[in-house]
Design a protein that fits this description.
This protein has about 475 residues and is α+β, with helices and mostly antiparallel strands. Helix content is about 35%, strand content about 15%. It contains 16 helices and 20 strands. Strands 2-9-6-7-4 form a five-stranded mixed sheet. A four-stranded antiparallel sheet has the order 12-19-16-17. The chain has a four-stranded mixed sheet with strand order 13-15-14-18, with no helix packed on it. The two termini are about 25 Å apart. Pfam families: Methylase_S. It comes from Texcoconibacillus texcoconensis. Its EC number is 3.1.21.3.
Amino acid sequence: MSKTKKLTTEEQLEEALISEEEQSFNIPENWVWTKMGALTQVVGGGTPKSKVKEYYENGSIPWLTPADLSGYQDIYIERGKRNITDLGLSKSSAKMLPAKTVLLSSRAPIGYVAIASNELSTNQGFKSFIPSKAYHPEYLYWYMKFSKGYLESISSGSTFKELSGSKCKEISFPMPPMEEQKRIADKVKRLLNKIDEAKELIEEAKESFELRRAAILDKAFHGELTSTWRIENNHEYKALQSEYSKIDELLERFPKKKNIDNFPESWKLTDINEVCSESFYGPRFSKGDYSTDGGVPTVRTTDMTKDGGIELNNPPYVKVSGERLEAFKVLKGDLLVTRTGSIGTMAVFNGAYEAIPSAYLIRFRFKENINPRFIFYYLKSPIGQQMLGLGATAITQPNINAKTIKSIPIFIPSLSEQEKIVEILDGYFHKEKQISELLERDETINQLRSSLLNKAFRGELGTNDPTEESAIELLKEVLQEN
């Protein structure tokens, strides 16, 4: 039989290079697009029979499955949850892989990547790229991380997708000169670490916002935010506690461990019932009342913002008579509180339009000497939340009613001091909202990661040296040795 003629280096090069029309994107002139199969061996894995204890018991060979990389964040990995024995290795299709092998999960799911920090083996859920002088392991690692969508697109299978060994050999690879690969890997790692640090700081800031929010609300309703204001304005609003015959009963309604001795003397002890002129449950409408052709919008919990405003978001509309509208509609200054579902979510209506509260809301209207946002902030404060049954230590109620809310005790300052407290809190939370909106842009962080990797493999990180020998020379050298 005649032997297969060995291809010349030029013929191998022609097979290894990817044609211009098949290239995914442009790369620098001293880079080349090639196929992974031209650069290295692609090795699969295997699983020794699980019922044979001799294949696993007291094994010393690290053995990985894709599950070992689930949530794994490090670049290098030493071992998985299980080891296998030499016998288990020899009696299965698992292979001993050298250190610096790039491990790629090829099914369930496709796209987990790690680099072997020592000799190890894998199950059949991996396709592994043996070390080669053609690529720096960390450069290939980041490229595979970047290429998850591309890898999934070339996979096959009806029940579940799998990336075959033959497909892995066909993976398109943008190959820079070796020193450039190292520079790219180092810069990508350094910049991604900074992005991750920024993300951690953002998460910490979000958590601290909640703590600061609770702290400032607690100070507000103990008179601490306006202590200087009271002195500067020579404020001597004296509460006539004798107007109320149930002082002791009101004090008993406070949480048992709550210190009620540190409220300003000028603040009046009462309850929400005494300062509320009326309450009203949102009406229920029949199917025929709803309209797609005009009508009055209904305010829902989902229309309420965190800072106590209302922003209608494609609300249902109803058509009602003028008489019913007058009875149902909200007025400026009405406090709307969710009574079931998202219990305690609330907002103060301040719109210049007619609207009706939905059936799951309670509408509270207050007397003239009460600023509705003062009540809103009080109910959002730690003590208010606790009395609503929503505090950190409380067991959340399935629903809440107007009677319960009206029974909540409250220390009330003069209207002018209420307005000052609201002014301070509005200002503080407005600034917090602006910062929080910036911090909420998690997608921006993800876009930064994607953009960084996108630039890395296009030679746009500012690390490429066009005077370095072209990567095609390195490719030729590798092909000659294969």
